[in-house]
Amino acid sequence: MQIEQILQEAVSSAIRELYQATAKASQITLQKTKKEFKGHYTLVTFPLLKISRKSPEQTAQEIGKWLLEQSPVVSEYNVIKGFLNLTIAPGVWIELLQRIDAQPDYGFTPVADDAPLYMVEYSSPNTNKPLHLGHVRNNLLGHALCEVLQANGKRVVKTNIVNDRGIHICKSMLAWQKWGNGETPASSGKKGDHLIGDYYVLFDKKYKEELATLQAEGLTTEQAEEQSALMEEAREMLRKWEAHDAETVNLWKMMNGWVYAGFDETYRQMGVTFDKIYYESQTYLAGKEEVLRGLEEGQFYRREDGSVWADLTPFGLDHKLLLRSDGTSVYMTQDIGTARMRFNDYPIDTMIYVVGNEQNYHFQVLSLLLDMLGFEFGKGLVHFSYGMVELPEGKMKSREGTVVDADDLMAEMIATARETSQELGKLEGVSEEEADAISRMVGLGALKYFILKVDPKKNMTFNPKESIDFNGNTGPFIQYTHARIRSVLRKAADQVITLPEMMDNTVPLSEKEEGLVQLLTEFAAVVQQAGAEYNVSLIGNYIYELVKEYNQFYHDYPILKEENTALRDFRLVLSKNIALTIQKGMKLFGIDVPERM
To answer: Which of 29, 32, 40, 37 is nearest to 93 (CA)?
Structure first.
């Protein structure tokens, strides 16, 4: 049982005896005592005044006195304007640490066979370009969310929808066909996704040149776009693909195959995996079927040009295009088909889409359309909406080739981690192989932590230099602290110090030590809150706070040199469990922590 629960029950008993009344759980409000006051937990007495019929101060004094006399967990109390600050007895903290030490998986809930099934969609790349910094945030958030949900006892299916069809794919295909001269990943020495991305950029360049020529002949921008021969060729290629033209389909399969090989390499480097991958080339047909069914049933309508629309004005929205006049589908059509296929494939309880906040409207509409089509799951879809990630220099644009490539970014982070680690002497005495492993661990850990520590809803600026600092709220700072603790534990083992099965609960503890145990006890609640609110950044904030407090303790108090062996053993057990909690918390972020550094 958590200390907060023990206190709540004790306060509940106090109210029954003092005021012959029963308080609701919502009336017993406990919070962590502010640092400027003495105590561990604070009871807010204002919700209890209708029961006590006394002033806040008097109510707090009476409850505090009762707890001091009747509850073995409370050793002191003080009252500040109706706030009852309670100090927990030192022996209780030692017993709580003992319990945590006996549970290596403390904070995590085992996944039962009948647990709710969550499907989480993330990544969603296009096969016309490599993954970039925006995809990195998406993948890391999706992967971390899955880990946090599993830590909360949920069954999770990690899924990806690959945007492998559409006009943007045809632009890359057409550019390669016209100007590629048979270039392949093997002949160019480039990853397949990079090669195809280059042709997407080339198409845009040639298209702009064509528009400039047409405008120089006196056409307006709109007229030039309408008369673009290059864009018409791309549209024709899409029509051929949808008509299953053999030559077009074979070109598409070959080029997409190059891209998938490139994606797989990037995902491996990033430490991201999927249980099931869907492809829009398969799901868009299911979506068209559903749209045409909705048209027949009168849910949707057809315009004179043959396009199919949904009227969403009854919901305070506008009219939404579902099929173009030439019969080709749009993203919304594909998402309808993908949703139908997923719910046919799995008994999903909750479907979560990890997609940027610029798509808020899209998912609002998708939910409504699925509901209109009679799918019970329509209203229950969850859009995990997150903010954009930018660089200090500003926004990125794929068409103009100004994106930060995910592969280049990860390679740069690993190289910078090695350089920084060497400068600070963190790699002294380790083998070349170990140095490589530590550099990879620190570089990728810095990248992941810097992105995941930010509230997902917020826009963020990714600064590579800041992220790899060994001080402050960074991955390397946390990793180094873990290595520092493991070093202490190795030295203890070298000195043949055996940790006791039962600690002496009469050992006097400092406020810092009590505060660290209190922080450890909060890990389970933080994991639960992160899962309930879909906010993985809570884990990062918690781990940083734990590490920061531990480092202050490490600086101020001896561990191995402590002469009181019972106190030394307590500090070693405390250190061991802090290291384990750091490891578990960082694992939720997909981050490894080094044993030595």
So the answer is: 40
User: Which has the closest alpha carbon to 418: 401, 387, 442, 399?
Assistant: 442
**DSSP string of 85-131, one letter each residue:** EEEEPHHHHHHHHHHHHT-TTTT-BPPPTTSPEEEEE----BTTS--
Q: Report pLDDT digits (tens) over 207-242.
A: 999 999 999 999 999 999 999 999 999 999 998 998
Burial 57-66 (b: 16+ CB within 10 A, else e): eebbbbbbeb
The arithmetic mean of pLDDT across residues 479-485, rounded, is: 96
> From edge to edge, which strands make up the β-sheet containing 308-311?
301-302, 308-311, 319-323
The whole-angstrom separation of Cα 536 and Cα 147 is: 9
Mean of pLDDT values over 343-371: 95
3-class state of residue 456 by DSSP = coil
Nearest residue to 73 via CA among 90, 56, 61: 90
In the structure encoding, which two tokens stand for residue 202, read together? 């080339």
Single-letter amino acid, residue 5: Q
Evaluate whether 317 touches 365 at the Cβ level (below 8 Å): yes
Q: d(Cα 351, Cα 340) in Å, to the nearest integer?
A: 12
Q: Which amino acid appears at position 155 of this protein?
A: R
CA distance 376 to 435: 54
Query: Residue 29 corresponds to which tokens in the numbers above?
Result: 């409000």
User: How much is the average pLDDT of 473-477?
Assistant: 94
Residue 395 has pLDDT above 60, yes or no: no
- Percentage helix, strand, coil, to 5, in the chain? 55, 10, 30
CB-count exposure of residue 38 (10 Å: 0-12, 13-18, 19+): middle
Domains (range + CATH), the chain: 3-88 (3.30.1360.70), 122-390 (3.40.50.620), 442-588 (1.10.730.10)
Instruction: Give the contacts of 456 (CB within 8 A, at least 6 positions apart).
Output: 141, 384, 385, 386, 387, 534, 535, 536, 537
Rounded-to-integer distance, Cα 159 and Cα 276, Å: 5
Asked if pLDDT for residue 7 goes beyond 80, the answer is yes
At 318-335, the pLDDT tens digits run 999 999 998 888 889 999
Q: Where are the alpha helices (DSSP H) in 453-536?
A: 464-467, 475-494, 511-521, 523-533
pTM of the model as a whole: 0.91
Distance CA 495, CA 324 (A): 75
pLDDT over 60 at 397, yes or no: no
**In the predicted structure, residue 398 carries a pLDDT above the cut 50:** no
Rounded Cα gap, residues 230 and 35, in angstroms: 67
Q: How far is CA 190 from CA 132, 203, 266, 407, in A?
A: 16, 18, 13, 12
Beta bridge partners of 352: 120, 382
Q: Which residues contact 419 (CB under 8 A, 6 or more apart)?
A: none
In the predicted structure, residue 336 carries a pLDDT above the cut 70: yes
- Phi, psi torsion values for 280, nearest 5 degrees: -60, -25
CA distance 552 to 575: 13
